[in-house]
Specification:
This protein is an alpha/beta fold. The protein contains eight helices and eight strands. The strands form two sheets. It has a six-stranded mixed β-sheet with strand order 3-1-4-8-6-5, sandwiched between helices.
Length: 211
Amino acid sequence: MQLFNKVAAKKSLVHTWYIYPILVAISTILWVWGFGAFHQPSAHQKLTLFFATDIKNESFLKDIQTEHYEREKLREVSAYYSLPSAGSTYYTMLNVYLSNSDILILDENTLDELKVALDKAFVPIDEKTKTNYLFYTNTYYHSDDDKDYGVLIKKKGEPSYFSTYMTFDEERDYYLTLSLSSKNLGQLLDENNKNFDNALTFMHYLVEKTL
């Protein structure tokens, strides 16, 4: 009986051998997928930016990330962009990233169009934030209630560090704004969020490039 079982097992193996490498391959794929999924950056380890420009080269974002942040502090920076002249495409993308980003670089015309609802999309840049993360020479976009919702990052008609990397409408000023949806605004919105200020520090490094 034992001999019969061995013979039967060998015959079965001959006909089903291909199943085993398939199972190994599937197991490997599942392990790699699970490892990657488990190690995805958290909301505090990534930044999403939207630009009302046409980005030709995103290397400046990677340069800031690698020069100023430890890997576990900031693991991912994503940039999305569209020129206002793109019409409906621009406004569709803007609508998406107003509620799904950390930082937006917008032209003054767009901010004027949003003026009645600035507080629904952006965080005012208060004096403490200006002192800790910005520079005394900065110019700001003022709302009707005299709050500052953006810091000037590109003046119309003037050359800019960023002109090497993206196309601007030279007839417009551009401001950096902070999205109300960001989880990386430090204590600006939440006292318990002190350690998660990547959006503010990244703002600092972007603005610094313009000085």
